[in-house]
Amino acid sequence: MDDYLQRIGASSTSSLAELHERHLLSVPFENLDTHMDIRIVLEVPWLHDKIVVRRRGGFCYELNGMFAELLRHLGHHVDLLAARTIGEERRLGPPLDHLALLVDGTWLADVGFGSLTLHPLDWRSREDQHDPFGVFRLVDAGDDVEVLMDGKPCYRLERRPRELAEFVPTCWWHQTAPESHFRTGPMASLALPAGRITVTDKKIVRTENGHKTSSDIEDPAAAFLEHFGLHFRQSNASGVLRQL
């Protein structure tokens, strides 16, 4: 895992909070494979090749799945927790819609939600938890636990541990179903020390110190390369991004 630590600018002596922060500042949340017709494989060697060797990003199953392996390598106990995202009118996503991590039975870590905490949350606390990216609270919801960001529910977590292979069907659904929001268009997003930058096939949105700016783009491939180092070209025939 030394190459992984180098990828995120951390060391084997880094704290969990530092590892979490460095990961979010180094590895983008992105769905480009979905728009290249490349099937995501939820197996550690494939994820390692993509995220560490090829210096790509991914979405929750990939990012948290690989981060769990790093933490285990460093001596942490990690459980994979399944969650359902909570949308408008408290509409729940499908089962195993999201993957988050319970570390050492104490910390909720999540480097794969797109925009959430910079640091892990205290799993045992039910009080407000102040983070550079917002105010968070964990709320018991029957047998589950809901994660709130600035008072708005993000997702509902199951408490029982899962295996990475259990997320394969929903991962495939997110890549193929017309209803999946990952199918609406290619995007990549990366946390910044004071905000976030997000690139889609139409816009660049940057938030810093609470100030948001947005600009249109004409060449998505150039934008992905400039801001994330992702080497892509766009097919003139289909408008689908293809990896070089």
From TrEMBL:
Top-level taxon: Bacteria
Pfam families for this protein: Acetyltransf_2 (PF00797)
Entry-linked InterPro entries: Arylamine_N-AcTrfase, Papain-like_cys_pep_sf
Chain ranges passing through the membrane: none
Family indicated by similarity: Belongs to the arylamine N-acetyltransferase family.
Name the UniProt record assigns to this protein: N-hydroxyarylamine O-acetyltransferase
